[in-house]
Here is the input.
Amino acid sequence: MNQFAVLCLDNNPISIEQLRKELSPFAARFDMHTADTLEDANAALDYCSDNKQTVALVIASHHEGFNGADFLIQLDKMPHTQQARKVLISCGQDIQAILSAVNDGRLDHCLTKPLQDHVLRKTAQKELTTFIIKNDTENLLAYSQILDHQRLLKTHIDYKMRSYQEGFISEHHRLSDQDLTAQVTDALLNFFAEKDESRACRCYSSDHLLTKEGEENRFLWFITQGEVALYKKDEIGMQREVVRHKPGNIVGGMSFVTGEPSFSTAITLKPTEVIKLDRDIFAEVMHSNTALLPLFTNLLLRHFNRRLQRSITTKLELQKTLESLESAQKQLVEREKMAMLGQLVAGVAHELNNPVAAILRGTETLTNKIQALIDAPQSKNNGLGIEVLNQALLSKPKSTANEREMVKVVDQQVNNRRVAKKLVKLGLNNEKAWLARASSKDTHLLEDLEQLENYHLAGSTLRSINVCALRIADMVKSLKGYARSDDEKFHVADLHEGIEDTLVIFENKLKMHKLEKHYAEMPPTRCLPIALQQVWTNLISNAIDAFPTKGCLTIRTQLKERDGKQWCVVSFEDNGSGIPIELQQQIFELNFTTKKEGNFGLGIGLSVCQQIVHQHNGFIRVESKCDQYTRMSVWLPYRQY
Here is the structure.
């Protein structure tokens, strides 16, 4: 007796025989039951139930006097037939009801007589394949001779791959490192116990070289006994130990997998037993045991993870050391920055008067209009008023010529220039409802428009305040860089913008002198803008301090080629007294200054400037002639990524 059965129902004995003959190829894997009455069909179902046989497919005829459709639909109520595929053979009667049952999922397929050659066998093959895929996934290939071979094979492969992937992820991560290592070791030793033509299992004495830093590595060593140390060369070429590997660890894993040169030199510290695998042997081992590949892969991933964790820990320790060094530098920078804040405030305060006065006037106007809106009675135009306020807040000022033209157009429609101006001002010149009210001489129109004007004026005043606030923000933007810690990261920025921001704080000092700017077409470059702004501040401050009575500061930017690289060059030239040759070698020393006692200036010191430029992999060049000029040029490598 087979596990699954097929039932055919038709009250015509000839048709029953035809069905049995048509379905005979499936008899090898499915028991065939036939019935010519509903009673016999139910008896066959009871027989299957008693023998714990699941019904896979039921084919029933339907015609006048024999309702096979209802019989198929009732199968959903019985446990051993709920999963059965249901095929109806109809004579064309009640076709709408039958199609409805198919569309609702109560029937799986419907055939109409007369049947074409082999159509029933093909339909049965399709439905049985669907049933087997859902109900016997472990034995799919056993049905490949009689059912849809391609579907079964594809489903089998998909199922095995899914099962493999799920097992790969979920099964092995629960193992401890010791258990995982033991399983991999046992599997490898068992494989090479039978044959070891390549002598993969080896024992090395102390000081045996496994891998050499920077050279090609074609092998992977799995340590079973002993100890191996990894060494890495530092900047001066000295070998330094970075880690030690014990049994269960892998040597050469990264270079073996990626094909890149060895990252480190591996040397045995004492007699060490290893399993040495090249790529061909590795593939042979893994193909010999499907369970070994996920085990070994998990072990390899853990090995890489441990290596990453060690690298992160080392990086954190180095980061702490670096931060302590940077802290000392920041203290020096902050001390200079705090000393100059007084002078910065004095220069900027004068420039803030106009926008601050405009803001004060705007707030007074805004207060009055808000009070007027609060005191005004509620009306149906409040919602529109909010829209008018938002529009005035976000819109840019209109051209007066365009505004006059729009007023002229509206005036021609409403014949009232005063109303036309208000409609254009409020952005209602294209609103048909308001134009209609204006044309009809609505007595409440002016009152409503005046209320909306209060909203409009409130919004435009807010916009004006925003513009003034942005102006203030532009003027003090550079100050923010000095008032906070320098923790910025490299990003692409326009060098010209940083220079312009710096010049803002020197506007007061430069009013009595001449400023020339010659900016080249220079694309944004990757840099630390705030740090560079401190450099610009120092160089401009030094130039101003060197000015004669009528000073001239020339700022020039250029793109130049040097040593096969492209450089952004920013130079600051003054017409001051110059720097003697003997001092040009000292100006970058820590705490060196030419300022008189009591004159703090605005700079942070050329030594710190040089550190910032070196951080960009650049340099500062000094050119000077006594009593003629001094030119400080900052060379920065152009990097856009």
